[in-house]
Design a protein that fits this description.
about 70 residues; mainly alpha
């Protein structure tokens, strides 16, 4: 990723990687889970979460799935 990429561009790239790492999860589930990871379990979390917060949560989730795959193999 380049220094000029926006948080949104980085988020979309990370979401693509998550899609590959966890293809069984529907996209809506993925977004809802990331919003909850970023903001907590509230009705407002999916509405109020910022791109940079989702990016941080997405990177954590991706690291979890990548670590899970390494441990399984």
């Amino acid at each position: 990723m380049t220094m000029t990429e926006t948080a949104r561009e980085q988020l979309i790239s990370t979401l693509d990687q998550l899609n590959i790492a966890c293809p069984e999860m529907r996209f809506g589930q993925l977004i809802a889970n990331l919003a909850t990871l970023a903001r907590g379990l509230t009705a407002e979390s999916i509405w109020d979460v910022e791109d940079d917060e989702l990016l941080c949560a997405a990177r954590k989730q991706l690291a979890y799935f990548e670590d899970r795959d390494v441990q399984v193999t």
